[in-house]
Amino acid sequence: MKIQPRHHDDLNLSRLNLIVALDQVDMQEWSVTYESRGRIVRISCEAGVKYAVPHGLDSDVSAALINLYIEEGMPDDGRITVAATALLHLCGWHKSGKYMGLLRACLERLHQANYTVSGGWRDHPKQRWTHAKFHFIESLNFTTLDGVGLFDERSMIVLRLAEDVTASIRSGYLKPLDSEFMTSLSRPRTRVLYRVLDAARFDPENPDRQVDTLTFPVLAWGDQCKIPSEGQAWRVIRALTSPHQELIKRGYLADVILSGRGKDQTVRYEFARDFTKVDPALMRKFREYGVADGMVRKLVREHGESFLTETITRFAALVSSGVLVVRKTKAAALMHLIAHPDDYPYPNKPAPPPTKAAPTMQPLLAEPSLEEDFADLTPERAADRLIRRLDLHYRKLLRAPDYDQIRHRVLTGDIIPAELLRTAVSAVAAGKQEQFVANLRQATGH
Fold it and tell me: Which Pfam families would you find in this protein's record (predicted)?
């Protein structure tokens, strides 16, 4: 499965915000009621028996699942099949036992929590406000080593998103999401606040319209962020002070202005108008050399991405060849090269290839063979691609344990992906899918 960076968010989910903007909570339920353009909106959440309401890190998981669903082609049944390790990568988390456990807990909370939205769920194609009641994850199946424990390297997850959620996504009620920036933020509550703020900038009835300032009563904004305040504005302010500071430092917010006293306090957000989106790969390269994100955005505005990409490649070559010696920090040396590019030699450019006569008309190239389709992939990527292809044809027959076994056998070399996929496709053409699955399970001893 080719994992792409997350680039979209559903406006219903992000605008209403169903995730508490705190790192840790012990709440079993919450409910907010407010007026919006003459409508009374009521939103409530009831947690499962063993878990608190979704909060903090759960926002990372829900955002990842939204974009994975889009990447999967937005299937009508809302089903997603993904390896636990791949989902960790999409969330921007480390692949470790700690985060395996956190991922399991996040999925359980999103599966068990029951949401009710009255008067606030947007059916945008029909220009109507509707009532919605759902679990974000309607069904959840996965494999573990002992059947009940934590995820491991082999774990496969098969889940189904709520019909209300998938219908909203398929309708195109989406907004851009700078996922590279979001996952780089240090704390879960900061990432939740960024996601809520970024959605609040869009007019829910006209998503093409975006604002540069937002002002809210502090207590109402606390409700929007689902922060329990007990009617005391200082509780909301205290919870959001650190996220505010980070979003200002990182260049997303220009300022956060608090006004008034007591319950009547308001918060005004001023967004940085020159917040520049940067190619994620280029941003990662600059981070490796210790250059802050805000400085990278400034450099992109001044020099453009093409120049910076060429310069950072040139920098690596000059350092490795010993022509450029790093005396203080790599960040300082790279910044000097950007500011004074002519102080250093340029690499020799290869001579242009000789011109060739115009080629004669050739027949259309045949589609690559299955072997070529899996060539040069790591075993893990090959396994993910195979599972994605199988899921297109066998989603009603194959279960999480089947995918677990397939993935494991590809990683150990017991299955050649191209050969298995060829057999699977042939079975579909012959109408023998059930026989293929039976043979597969027999071969895997499952």
Answer: RPA (PF10134)
Q: Do 238 and 287 belong to one domain? A: no
> Where residue 364 falls among pLDDT bands split at 50, 70, 90?
very low
- Other CB atoms within 10 A of residue 193 CB: 26
Same domain, 234 and 313: no
| Distance, CA of 151 to CA of 107 (rounded, Å) | 11
* Any domain includes 155: yes
Domain count for the chain: 4
Q: Examine the pLDDT at 114 and tell me if it is beyond 60.
A: yes
Average pLDDT value over all residues in the chain? 88
Q: Which domain holds residue 426?
A: 373-444
- Mark whether 268 and 290 lie in a shared domain: no
Taking a C-beta distance cutoff of 8 angstroms, is the pair 120, 149 a contact?
A: no
Q: What is the pLDDT of residue 282?
A: 85
Q: Which tokens is 359 given? A: 């080629």
Q: pLDDT confidence of 289, banded at 50, 70, 90?
A: confident
